[in-house]
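tool_call predict_complex ligand=PBG
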Amino acid sequence: MDLTRRPRRLRRDGLRELVSETTVEARDLIAPVFVDATTDERRPIPSMPGHERVPVDEAVDRVNELLETGVESVILFGVPEDKDPEGTRAWAEDGVVQRATRRVSEATDATVITDVCMCEYTSHGHCGILEEGAREAPRMTVDDDATLGRIEEIAVSQAAAGADVVAPSGMIDGMVGGIRAGLDREGFEDVPVMSYAAKYESAFYGPFRDAADGAPAFGDRRHYQMDPANVREARREVALDVEQGADVLMVKPALPYLDVISEVRRTFDHPVAAYNVSGEYAMVHAAAEKGWLDLEATALESLTAIKRAGADLILTYFAEDVAARL
Ligand code: PBG
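tool_result ok
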């Protein structure tokens, strides 16, 4: 055996850090914040320990808590006062996310990203306007063409409220191009689009759907979100968003899709974001509660792996806890 080569030489304390290839930094993390128009006090989210829905009046306080840990960016999700089939509260000037965005961008230095989607606002819980007969027929559920104009309006209303970045998550074909055109037309040429470019139809979104009250009332999202079996298709999906002017490319979920992150990293030059989703977070917490996993070590290792796979930024519910310890 050739023992002139001993990789362990570089694993000594002091050297390990010097040759480390990947670092997780607070400024790379984006913390999700749920703003709820139906409550005037903070409501814990049972399946996401440590997270709460906050009323609009407390959005600034919540963001300041995050900033104190070193996190610099937040993504806002909204729970509206009421829902209808068209999701009209999604683009209202006095909508929950628009109000929170206005306050947070005025009162703090946080980078405010807004999620552009309709599922939290539609009474049926789907990410757009439904096709005729969708309720009965187990085929396409969302009408892309009818939805596009709405998606554009949502993004413009959020930019007008002060969003620094808009992040469309509905997997509506053409959404990035539509939003880009709308933003440019309304004078928001400088607002980037962070596209949920490769978003899979994933069972890992469960806790989020409780948190944001956005579970589909019937059917599922497999006719618009991607099939977990596909990675070559992700390349095509992401290429379309690049053509349409996406500035940041997101892969979601993160841990079960590290191969997709690395594929997107290799294929495109754009910044790559990964969404370490609610189920990934809940899973670690549940195991830690049972004493089966070390919460802090598992969280940091998860984020390190996501960066190593090629993500530049990570949306994660661990943001404040990990940032506070870095
Ligand atoms: C929907 C949206 C989802 C998430 C963010 N925006 C989920 C879905 O399709 O239900 C999931 C985030 C998470 O699970 O943490 N537009």
